[in-house]
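Suppose you are handed only these lines of text.
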Amino acid sequence: MSTLNFDNHFKDLFENTSDLIHFLTIEGDIIMVNPAWLKTLGYRLNEVKGRSIYDFLHPAYAETYKLVRQKVISENSSEILDTAFLTKNGSTVVGEGQLGCAYQDGKPVYTRLVFRNTTGRRLAEKKVEENEKRLKTFFKNAPDAVIVINQNQQILEWNPKATEIFGFDAFEVIGQPLSETIIPHQYREAHKKGMERFLKTGEGTVLNKTIEITALHKNGREFFVELSISNVMIDGEWLFIAFLSDISERKATEENLIRKEAELLHSKMLDDKKDEFISIASHELKTPLTTIKAYTQLALSAANTSEKVQEFLSTIDQQINKLSFLLNELLDVSRIQAGKLKMTTEEIEFSSFLQSTLNSIQQITPHHKIILENNHSVKVMADPMRLEQVIANLISNAAKYSPGKDKIFVNSVTEDHRITISVSDSGIGISQQNLEKIFTRFYRIDESLKNFSGLGIGLYISSEIIKQHSGKIWAESSPNVGSTFYFELPVEK
Ligand code: ADP
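From them, the structure of the protein bound to adenosine-5'-diphosphate can be written out as follows.
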């Protein structure tokens, strides 16, 4: 073992450097270590002197250390070496250093390692690496397309979601100007100007906001996206990060809704126009019809007309009555639409009212016998003319829609201060899906359209009348078996 003589400056350097230095015998025992070595690994000099270096090396690095040491000893070379030590309390100190060998008279006498502790730096690097990894994972799995461009508009980053949304693979677009990829032609100029303005003034109209705009797919299809862009300055250059999501489906739903609303409005406008026409037409027709009716009545009462002419005149009179009935129904529809269907209610003794109403309806329903099965003496507040109109409508329907049959049954039931009147026929019936629709204005079942005349407003008017009496109207039916129409009214206490 040779004694070492340091001159003062070297000693100072040895003692005050932050690098770790040790000298070993050719066998690998410690001759000397510097204070930084002792401090970093937590030992005192007398605890280490004379001991094998392998007591202090991290076991995972021992083999490499041994090999490199053999090399520097046999070749008199100097090698850069990554290694690690264990401190006295068991933690690891990693670093890199330079391992060399000293020769005297052509013989190796000791090896030296000058070693820099990079544990802290390594940890920081590891953290950065982990952060980067984490960011990359976010970027890769982001639910939105994430595109990064620089101030020359070149695409720098393009995540998998961007590929999914726009159809371009990252390798196709990275380095390309954004405006030549996903920006629709009509926005390219504005995009360029916007960027120039931002670089000049620092103002950007689309920055840090969420906007809805269209974008281009690789296949040329233009579709709606939601876009937000933020900007950051890195190394003196602006970078722009765009987050985009495909909202074409949401847009389509919204557009559908708007279209539907427009259609509804349109059909409502058409309905309003129709109502207006019906109202005007029925009023206009009413006046000449009244005059014809009056003259027919006069002609009928004239004494000097022949029997034949009398017969013709009464046919005309009957047809006028039919026409006038239809016109009155149309006028009622207009009144309902205008909210002007007025009721003049009075207290009615219902059993006699029903009986006399049926008697008069029976006169104009010669082919069907109206059979009143139950009648109750209760009092109701009602407009007798309007109520008669409802009953007449139900019975005339029962007769009309049961050709070949000859009976119509009328029933009444009183319960809980309500009276329910029903009108039953054994006619063509109504399918389940039509049962509610028949009370809407102008609704006629297809089969009825072909085989029976009518305007499809009788039940609509009836239901309005019953509604205004705080009542209820409905139907039950089986196709080809028959129908029963019900209406219910409150009874006076
Ligand atoms: P209209 O009889 O003039 O067509 P309504 O408003 O009185 O108009 O009736 C509406 C529709 O309801 C009719 O077109 C018909 O299809 C159906 N309907 C009404 N009453 C009956 C019934 N008793 N039996 C079968 N179908 C009926």
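What can we learn from it? The pocket of adenosine-5'-diphosphate is lined by residues 393, 397-398, 401, 425, 427-430, 438, 444-445, 448, 454-460, 483 (CB under 6 Å). The chain is about 45% helix and 25% strand.
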